[in-house]
Design brief:
207 residues, alpha+beta, nine-stranded mixed sheet, 9 strands, 27% strand
């Protein structure tokens, strides 16, 4: 890293800048436009949100990256549930990507989550990228992604133990917290407060 950076908890004064950089980071990546900036905005008021793990990277006086975590559960096959954390979204300013900032933020917050006693973290993302942080295919450990048939691979759905043995013998299914489901009209209304950007349908998008 060619400049000094700091990692700290997100503060209310950061909210607008975080939402803007999240919009820039995800625009036209997974779909035309994006929803992640609205998700970050709306999630802060939900009980599942974990504010102490919502952190930013400051670089050269600006917020360069942001990460969010939320609480969720694995519904156990034998009854009951197992608390887990959900990682994401992670946002890095486009011009600062591939400089290791996202990785530094992920490692910092995973360590902080472990220190706070959380047992495991799940996410949906790139296996190639997240395996470097100790994440592995959740399905191989007995945790299924709800709504997907058991015989369909879900390599994007990954998990990492923060406490040794926390997932030992666990089998069950995971569904994203309700807060991850956003209404298109709410996203559009929120996005109207940002500078206009063109929505493009591009190869590789999921929608």
């Amino acid at each position: 890293m060619d400049s000094e950076y700091t990692i700290r908890q997100e503060q209310p004064a950061d909210y607008a800048e975080v939402e803007s950089l999240t919009r820039e980071a995800f625009w036209n990546v997974y779909r035309p436009g994006c929803v992640e900036h609205y998700l970050v905005h709306s999630y802060r008021s939900l009980p599942e949100f974990v504010p102490e793990l919502s952190c930013v990277v400051k670089l050269d006086g600006r917020i360069a990256a942001h990460i969010m975590y939320s609480r969720a559960e694995v519904a156990l096959d034998g009854g009951g549930s197992l608390p887990v954390l959900v990682l994401g979204p992670v946002s890095v300013r486009p011009e600062l990507q591939r400089r290791g900032l996202g990785g530094k933020l992920i490692r910092h917050t995973l360590e902080a989550a472990a220190e706070r006693g959380f047992g495991a973290v799940v996410l949906s993302g790139s296996p190639e990228y997240y395996s470097r942080f100790g994440f592995t295919d959740a399905q191989s450990l007995g945790i299924r992604y709800a709504g997907v048939p058991e015989d369909v691979p879900t390599p994007f759905f990954m998990v990492r133990e923060l406490r040794a043995g926390y997932l030992a013998g666990v089998t069950g299914s995971y569904a994203d917290p309700p807060g991850y489901a956003v209404r298109e009209e709410d996203v559009e209304a929120f996005d109207a407060g940002f500078p206009p950007k063109e929505k493009l349908k591009l190869p590789g998008q999921l929608q």
